[in-house]
Design goal:
465 residues, alpha/beta, Rossmann fold, Alpha-Beta Plaits, 5-stranded parallel sheet, 47% helix
Length: 465
């Protein structure tokens, strides 16, 4: 579907030129000749981007920009303001009001289309998670970007031998409250995995002169800098590179000589939105993690376990693993704890049971709460003797110390019965049926442990054959 752009200009000739330019680039174009009509179209048609003249008959473009930014329906819509006057005060006011850019007429068509492509790409890339997060307002995930204060790490990518561009000298005024460092391009590209990722990369004209715009692709290909926003600074001789830099992933283009206040507004807006996006991404990860985790014990749940069992089955099928064990653990007489002390105490005991079991397992072992007081433990690449030792250690760990709730001993032993199923070599069944087979075998062994007196480990007959 073609992206829709709203053009707001009081002169029909300007609207016609912009409409022809945008349609030639395969955009759907709406037009408005005054502010109120633009507001109505923005609310009714939800354009993907708005091109907005500063001078309108019923209000200024600045006033319209502020109204659009205050409206939930258009608060995230990219807005580019333009004016025939090279008025610095207008430009700073527009950026401060939330405009994504402020351009001077006559418009540079190549740069304008590059800016449009960049803004639409960024908006599309980040809109779906935001839409999902907005559904989770009570969890704090719907915070608006204006309230997310940036705590930023900035890397200035400069030529180390000189500061001919003046960027290093300007850094204290641009990034006075941020962690800012200066690196060569090669030092940035060679940072080891696990290095704290910068939020923003500022690439100097000298780096572009020596390495070309390929430097942007290189920075985006490295794990440390892949998610960083990129700002390029162009010298007067490099003006033609602006659109190409935007197409190659730059978030902002600045030009020498730098207007410090203008640059600060632009870069702080980028950092603020990135801080918001990062917070939303972390919140989304937390939500996804919660979907795969048991809310009481903090262990993995059955949904997560199913995926891990399938992965192990596939690894066995292709020979990446030579075997695995599955333990089905059930607490003995646990109903008596709930009946005697209440379900809240029972929950506290289950939490401590989970903690004791997790502490007794290896980092590679996978434990999940299967339901009630049942747990499943998947042991990849584990022979039968080692699986039996782990199961017995679990039983001893659960029974070796009293359980204290509210500062007092509950006065009841907590023991467990364990059934073990084993798989050696490739899986005979389809991978998606492997988990059911293993749990059926472990369950039969568990029932034998229960009927045999409980607090014991039993190995499935198939594992002994």
């Amino acid at each position: 579907m073609s992206r829709r752009i709203l053009v707001v200009d009081d002169l029909s000739i300007n609207r016609a030129i912009l409409r022809a330019t945008l349609r030639a680039a395969c955009y759907d174009c709406l037009t408005a000749d005054h502010g109120q009509k633009a507001l109505d179209l923005a609310r009714e048609c939800r354009p993907d981007l708005i091109l907005l003249d500063y001078c309108l008959p019923d209000m200024t473009g600045l006033e319209l920009c502020r109204i659009l930014r205050a409206d939930p329906a258009s608060c995230d819509t990219p807005i580019v303001l333009f004016s025939a006057r090279a008025d610095r005060a207008q430009r700073l006011q527009a950026l401060g009001a939330g405009a994504d850019d402020f351009l001077q007429k006559p418009l540079d068509t190549g740069f304008l289309l590059g800016r449009i492509r960049s803004l639409l790409r960024i908006n599309r890339t980040h809109s779906p998670p935001f839409a999902l997060c907005a559904l989770s307002g009570p969890s704090g995930m719907a915070e608006q970007p204006a309230t997310a204060a940036p705590v930023a790490r900035v890397d200035m990518i400069c030529e180390p031998e000189s500061d001919a561009d003046g960027l290093i000298a300007a850094a204290p005024r641009l990034f006075d409250a941020m962690i800012c460092r200066t690196l060569s391009l090669s030092d940035s590209l060679l940072q080891p995995e696990g290095t704290p990722a910068p939020d923003l990369l500022v690439v100097s004209p000298a780096v572009l002169a020596r390495n070309g715009v390929q430097a942007l692709a290189d920075l985006q290909s490295r794990s440390v800098t892949r998610q960083s926003e990129i700002c390029v600074v162009l010298s007067h001789a490099q003006q033609s590179l602006g659109a190409m830099a935007l197409d190659l992933g730059a978030r902002e283009v600045l030009r020498l000589p730098l207007d410090i206040e203008d640059a600060r507004l632009r870069l702080l807006a980028i950092l603020k939105r990135k801080a918001w996006r990062d917070a939303q991404a972390r919140a989304m990860e937390d939500q996804l993690d919660m979907a795969l985790r048991d809310p009481l014990t903090g262990l993995n749940n059955r949904r997560y376990l199913s995926g891990e069992i399938l992965r192990v089955a596939q690894d066995l099928q292709r020979g990446a693993l030579t075997g695995c064990a599955l333990l089905l653990v059930d607490l003995d007489h646990f109903k008596a704890v709930n009946d005697r002390y209440g379900h809240n105490t029972g929950d506290d005991v289950l939490i401590e049971v989970a903690q004791r079991m997790r502490a007794s397992l290896r980092a590679s072992d996978i434990i999940a709460r299967y339901g009630g007081e049942e747990f499943v433990i998947l042991l990849p690449q584990t022979p039968l003797g080692e699986a039996r030792s782990i199961a017995q250690r679990l039983c001893n760990t659960l029974d070796q110390a009293p359980y204290r709730v509210g500062g007092r001993d509950i006065g009841q032993r907590i023991t467990a019965s364990v059934g073990i199923a084993m798989q050696s070599g490739p899986v005979d069944t389809a991978p998606d049926g492997f988990g059911r087979m293993m749990i059926d075998q472990a369950d039969k062994a568990l029932q034998s442990a229960k009927t045999g007196g409980r607090n014991r480990v039993v190995i499935a007959q198939a594992a002994l054959a």
